[in-house]
Structures are given as C-alpha cells and as structure tokens.
C-alpha cells in the first residue's frame, strides 16, 4: 500500500464480490447508518434517482420462491428488464468477462465440461449465495444512462461502507432476468425498473470462492494521458 493509504484506499482493496455468506444476521441499525452515509453519493442535478427495497426473513424468502418458480419454467420463465451485456460483446470486454467467469469456476473446481455443475452454481445467485439480507436497487423507467450511472455511484458507496462495517456484499444484476417477478413480489409498480440486487451479510472467510484474485485490466488499457 502507498504511504498515502487512506481508509478509502483500504476499503477499495478489501471489497470484492462475496459469493458465500454465513447465516449471521445483520443489524438493521447498522444498515440504516450505512444508507444514511450513502445518501452523500453524487448524482447529476442531485436527482438521487436510486430507489431501494431491502428484504430479509419472510420477505426475502418470498422473492426467492417467486424467482425459483420462474427458473423452473426454463427459458420461458425469463422476464428480462434490460440487456445485461450488450448483444455481440466484442474485445476487450468479452475476454474480461470470459476470464473472470473461468477464474470463478476454477476456484470452485468446476471445469468447463461440467455444464450441469456450472448451471447449478449459477443458480446459487438466486439464493443470494446464502446472504441474510438482499437489497434491490430500482428506479423510475423514465431515467436514462446518466441516472443509471448515479445508481452505480450509490451502489459503490454502499459496498465500501459495508466493508468498513465488517460486512460483505455481492452486486447481482442476475435478478433483472426475472425483473417482473421480483418487482411484483416487492410491491413495485410497472413504472419501476429493477437494476440490480445486492446480497449483504458476513463473508464466509473459509470459502475458496471468496479468495481467488480477481483480475483487472492494466492502467494503460483504460487511461490515455494527454498533455502531461
Ligand atoms: C452492477 C453489477 C452487477 C453484478 N451482477 C453479478 C451477478 O449477477 N452475479 C455475480 O456473481 N456477480 C455479479 N457482479 C460481480 C462482478 O462479476 C464483479 O464485480 C467483477 O467480476 C469484479 O469482481 P469484484 O467485484 O470481486 O472485484 C456484478 C457486479 C456489478 C457491478
């Protein structure tokens, strides 16, 4: 870590998408503090377009049940809110997406040929990887790309604050594959669009799936310095 290390830097390095949680409950008072701090997230025109529904217990179980019923329908069950990735993803993005998937399954010891194993593991998404709390981030359908980017800033603020509080999370846009069922179960009207879930809880520190190094592109692939 550099000499200028700050708690923000530490939280950025410590945060990762956690895909195995313990069943230790999360104190709602702690979550309230985190959400209050995350309200400081910036947004164009100060619209604060993020709208959030947080569930635990029976309400969380109801979402899992509703989506499990859709999953059982196979492809017919899909209720896509939006294209999660651009259709026909090209390089360098396709390689990054492929690379992280391979590293994830390698940590679990599930080879490419084991399609059933990979699907079974993917479906764990729809149990929130065992997290006791699930947050759903949604907004009005009138919002466009700038406001979606605002939602991302709110989401990262929450994820870093969770790290600071000793908690862990996994953002999960996979819920948008069954958006209507999620929204109906949460009591959201069709004027809302579901962006993503965020599984929240305490990380299972022993799980291999939480320990592999997650690759990042080198800086010169993403930053073009001009005039320095
Ligand atoms: C908006 C968003 C949605 C995501 N959706 C999923 C998801 O549905 N399932 C999953 O396992 N990971 C999901 N991820 C996690 C990414 O795969 C992860 O952030 C990326 O590979 C970098 O890894 P890291 O978060 O551990 O640093 C999502 C991340 C973001 C930001």
General description of the model:
- With about 230 residues, this protein is of the alpha+beta class.
- It has a domain at about 15-90 and about 130-210: NADH Oxidase (3-Layer(aba) Sandwich).
- About 40% of the residues lie in helices and about 15% in strands.
- The chain has eight helices and four strands, in the order H-H-E-H-H-H-E-H-E-H-E-H.
- It has helices at about 5-15, 30-40, 55-70, 95-110, 115-125, 145-165, 180-185, 220, and strands at about 50-55, 135-140, 170, 190-200.
- A four-stranded antiparallel sheet has the order 1-2-4-3, sandwiched between helices.
- Helix 2 (about 30-40) crosses helix 6 (about 145-165) and helix 3 runs antiparallel to helix 7 (about 180-185).
- It is globular, with a radius of gyration of 18 Å.
- The structure holds flavin mononucleotide (FMN).
Layout of helices and strands, plus pairs?
Layout: H1 7-14, H2 28-38, E1 51-56, H3 57-71, H4 93-108, H5 115-123, E2 133-140, H6 145-164, E3 168-172, H7 179-186, E4 192-201, H8 219-222
The protein binds flavin mononucleotide.
Summarize the structure in short:
The protein has a domain at 14-88 and 128-208: 3-Layer(aba) Sandwich (NADH Oxidase). It has helices spanning 7-14, 28-38, 57-71, 93-108, 115-123, 145-164, 179-186, 219-222, and strands at residues 51-56, 133-140, 168-172, 192-201. By secondary structure, the protein is of the alpha+beta class.
CATH architecture of the domain at 14-88 and 128-208: 3-Layer(aba) Sandwich
CATH topology annotation of the domain at 14-88 and 128-208: NADH Oxidase
Helix content: 25-40%
The name of the CATH superfamily of the domain at 14-88 and 128-208 reads NADH Oxidase
Quick one: how many beta strands? 4
């Amino acid at each position: 870590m550099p000499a200028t290390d700050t708690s923000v830097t530490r939280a950025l390095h410590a945060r990762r998408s956690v895909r195995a949680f313990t069943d230790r409950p999360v104190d709602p008072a702690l979550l309230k503090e985190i959400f209050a701090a995350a309200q400081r997230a910036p947004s164009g025109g100060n619209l604060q377009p993020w709208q959030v529904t947080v569930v635990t217990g029976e309400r969380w179980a109801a979402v899992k049940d509703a989506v499990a019923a859709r999953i059982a329908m196979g492809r017919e069950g899909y209720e896509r809110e939006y294209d999660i990735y651009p259709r026909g993803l090209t390089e360098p993005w396709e390689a990054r997406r492929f690379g992280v998937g391979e590293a994830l399954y390698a940590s679990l010891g599930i080879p490419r040929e084991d399609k059933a194993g990979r699907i079974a593991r993917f479906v764990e998404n729809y149990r929130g990887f065992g997290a006791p709390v699930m947050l759903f981030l949604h907004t009005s359908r009138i919002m466009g790309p700038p406001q979606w980017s605002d939602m991302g800033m709110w989401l990262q603020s929450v994820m870093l604050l969770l790290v600071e509080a000793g908690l862990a999370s996994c953002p999960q846009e996979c819920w948008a594959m069954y958006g209507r069922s999620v929204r109906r179960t949460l009591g959201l009207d069709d004027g809302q669009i579901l962006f993503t879930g965020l599984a929240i809880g305490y990380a299972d520190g022993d799980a291999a799936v939480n320990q592999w190094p997650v690759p990042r592109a080198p800086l010169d692939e993403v930053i073009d310095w001009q005039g320095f």
